[in-house]
Amino acid sequence: MNLGLINDFKYRVMKLKNILSIICLLLGLASCSGEDTMMNDVTNEIENAVNESAYVSVNVKSAVSSTKANTTGSSNDYSTLQSSISNCYLLLLNEGGDILYRASKQYQNQVANVSLEDFRILVKVNSVSKVIAVINASSDFQKELDDCISLNQLNKARETDAAYNLAIGEGKIDWKDVTGSSSTINNVPTVSVDGIVANYRVAAFALSDFSVKYYDCDPKTAVVQLENVWLTDMKSNVGLYDEGLDFNNTEEKDGRISEKNKFESLRKLTDMYSYSEENGYIKEFFRLNHDNATFKFIFPNTDSSKPVTAHLKFSVKRDNKEIQYFYREYVINRPTGDDFKNNVSEGKTYVHPGYWYNLGVTVHVKKDFIDCAFTCTTKDWIYNEINVDL
């Protein structure tokens, strides 16, 4: 285990300086008479520096994120992705909010929880009262945590990479009936802080499926293809306890649909594609894989003036005519409006941490081109229908 224990600068270093100063003074006066009292004082000071020690161990698991809305038939299992832990950073604080101890661990293989055996942090009994557990922090964010010596500074730290899936949890240290040890080797008691739940500070966006309904035509005479998906008005960071203030100012159009999500590829996979002839139309259903366009972690954004918006680009090629490109956009988890009812917001509209926002899209294609009309009907906000009249 790569376990690093860093004593608090003010608490430990100053303590050591005081002890060394007394020892130096003792050595300078060693030849003088009547120094028994001074010797006893120094001995007591050294003993107090190591007396009443104990280990603190913790158990941490990630919260099972609430699913904002379910997409029927989705093959993507987000629960495994959301519950994995790649690293854990612990901070131990006293009642005044000072960070006195810290420890971190990087896992070579992701784990479902941090066990009590993973951390044994040697501390002075009653010196700390709370444990803060930060999991899945980027290396840059961990460096920020290294520089924090108080809860106030911790509140100002910002994670800038949502892909790490940052989460935070807290636990109380109970010193009741704990008797510390004057030895740091033998008979040192262990205080266990069990059941810390780390709640996510990011959300997830996914375009999970794409359907095409053909009226008076078929997939051979009207070829539809999803081209691209991207997001705008995303926050650029997040805090451990609050939402970030800054936005990304550029549109992320680099998430072009990958080859594995091309419809000609998906048609070959029975678990990713279905074809049916229903009353008055033909329906193709495509279940999409995760790629840079269809899935990403994002920071929470509840700013109604600049909500996170998903943008869609798809194409339709009819017979021998040129390819036509269409663009649509959707405000993620928007509140109930004149033409829309949000049935699943539970008072939390827009993007909140710990939720998966799954988008499903249906394109309607007709044979004779009249106009390009757009309607959006929503069930659990994710079922969006795009009507393209051809």
Q: What does the main sheet amount to?
A: 8 strands, mixed
The poorly predicted ranges are 1-11, 29-50, 65-80, 370-383
Class from secondary-structure proportions = alpha+beta
What average pLDDT do the residues reach?
Answer: 79
Q: Count helical runs.
A: 6
Terminal CA distance: 63 Å
**Taking Cα atoms only, what radius of gyration do you get, to the nearest Å?**
29 Å
Strand proportion: 35-45%
Shape: elongated
- How many DSSP-defined strands? 18
Count of domain modules = 2
Helix content: 10-25%
**String of helices and strands:** HHEEHEEEEEHHEEEEHEEEEEEE
Write the layout of secondary structure elements.
Blueprint: H1 9-28, H2 36-50, E1 53-62, E2 66-67, H3 78-83, E3 85-93, E4 99-111, E5 113-114, E6 121-124, E7 130-135, H4 139-147, H5 151-156, E8 167-172, E9 190-200, E10 203-215, E11 222-232, H6 263-266, E12 273-278, E13 281-287, E14 295-298, E15 309-318, E16 324-331, E17 355-366, E18 383-388
Parallel strand pairs: 1-9, 2-17, 10-17, 17-18
Antiparallel strand pairs: 1-5, 1-6, 3-4, 3-7, 7-8, 8-9, 10-13, 10-14, 11-15, 12-13, 15-16
